[in-house]
Amino acid sequence: MKYSKGSEVLYTGRVVKGMDFNKPEAFPLFANTSFTMKSLKEVKEAYSSKYTYVRTGNPNRDSLAAIVSFLEEGEDTLIFSSGMGAITTTLLALIKPGDHIICNRNIYGETFDVMTKLLPTFGVETTLVDFDNLENVKKAVKGTTKMIYSEVLANPTLEIADVPSLAEIAHSNSALLMIDNTFTTPISIQPIKYGADIVINSMTKFMNGHSDAILGSITATSEIIEKIRPIRMLCGTPGDPNSSWMAFRGIQTIDLRVKKQMANAAKLAKAFEENKYISKVNHPSLESFKQHELATKLFESNETMTGMMSFMVPEDEEKIDKFMEALHFAHYATTLGGLRTTLNHPVTSSHSHMPDADRRKMGITPGLFRLSVGIEEPEDLIADFEQALKIFG
Ligand SMILES: Cc1ncc(COP(=O)(O)O)c(C=O)c1O
In the structure, which protein residues have their CB atom closer than 6 angstroms to any atom of ligand 1? Predict the structure, then answer.
């Protein structure tokens, strides 16, 4: 193409002088893989203090990371391509051959596989333990133990990890405590305040909240983050600009969304407990929940625990199908934390690989449903479940 003033503007984009000039009301999307430089002086400046290439740094990722650090009250945050990207990259960065990890047995399926299948191939030893008895955790500690790993609430029974006690065990043995806050979010609990060293969130869930982007985050001290950052660059697991921009928009309403979801879940749990077709309800706000006392210590109130819950209906597959079809609001989805209420059936999904007897020992029967409660009006949700549950009559 022949050079002209017009093409210079077209290809260099110099009409846009940057955010200061335009003062955009919403944070813009930097959908570029690279930033440009005009001289070696600019190149040197960029490498020392500015953005260069998208896998190394991007303003959308950084702006989102700043919000997550603020919410988790942590020193620094890295944004990853997914929750699993955050977990695997962090473990690769911090754990070495010969190290030992104590992991809660009741853990997200893919994290379970990382602990039991992937890490052993790198010479890392993992011990799975039931975290409902802390003596199990203490007994599992070895000289090589470098990390204790758990989710705040177990899927789908919502057993609570005693984060402050786990932090004490970890730190008295010079190990790190890594906590998955996906089911709870920093609106419910900030694990760092209770002594956790590393907090992971699958931002695909409540943090973004709109079921339209996949991302993960790690929040920790700057010292730990600076060990993980170069490994994220080598593994190629940073979050992409577009998803980061979407999650930035989603996370700005997290306080409104998640507070309503948690309050809705507490209301629904109470109503379910009174329903004659439901034999068991798992939500930490209920007095019948076996760790309710621990829940009242860790969370501020019954309405700010979690938007997740599970409940048990009769084990009649034909009626279960009719029950699901009769629901107007809640619908089956293989995710959680979105605006709308979603159902999940652990026996046919997350726990399908397990023998029935083992599942039953964990309280997971073919009648158990996990529920991610949305922002709908709680009265509508309760009325809808009550009409659909009559199918079991
Ligand atoms: C508790 C928990 N942690 C981690 C993950 C992994 O997140 P992602 O799907 O964003 O990789 C999930 C996914 O469902 C999860 O439920």
Answer: 82-84, 108, 151, 180, 182-183, 202, 204, 214, 216
